[in-house]
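Methods — Computational structure assignment.
A single polypeptide chain was analysed. Its primary sequence is given first, followed by the predicted tertiary structure written as structure tokens.
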Amino acid sequence: MERYTHGHDPIVVDAHARRTAEEAAAFLLPHLEPGMRILDLGCGPGTITVGLARYVAPAEVVGVDRSEEVLTRARSHAAEQHMDRVRFVTASVYDLPFVTDSFDVVYAHQVLQHLAEPVTALLEARRVLRPGGYLAVRDGDFGTFTHHPHQPLLDRWLTVYAAVARSNGGEPEAGRRLLEWVTAAGFEHPHATTSSWLFADPASRAEWAALWAGRIVVPHFADRAVELGVATRHELEQIGAAFASWAADPVGWFALIHGEVLAQKGGGTASSTIGGNRGRSSRVSE
């Protein structure tokens, strides 16, 4: 059974609401033009969606998510930003309520890692994308998470998280598999890039540690970990304390890599600008 590993507890949604198009979609932004219609899959609280809309105005941008609760927050954000060309729809990425060939861009940030059938979702994205339109996907890769000074309990956290995520039908190492999935879904001219997050100053360490120490003890995650027998509640609390200890160290370092793929649906004019392997570094909350 497919389940969203992070859930929609306030600590999760608040972190997602700090995301921006400039950071999360940097690999896509150079290809956007006014008038392009964008579909944002798994849009969450809509901050990236609204950010993308500024690059393609006056075109409509549509965000979809399966959680009506989080879309209520997204609609409020769009209204606060006076973005009346942004619309939010409750829908499954496997069954999009849009006609074929109706979007110029389909974008998904940190979505495919939570899906049991990522290629099926990409095939549906391909259906609603016009010929020549862009697909842009970005996912973290938990196998690249690295920290210093070493805390064995943070290694244990990664083991527990991976077990829970995979039991929910997801793939925590999705970043390295995006090129495989996009190719399997029949997209053309796929181009892979990477970007990174780094937490190595007091403020960012404290934010990152508080985020994960909080996430692993909320019922949505903790109950699942205990149910699976991969951790006890006491152990999860110990992991949270280890995050706090790591964050308090003045030389603390935590870095991770995201995979990104930009590709096109066949049948249109191929882009000559997709290319130039690169890596980017940034620091935000996941």
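Note: The chain has a mean pLDDT of 94.
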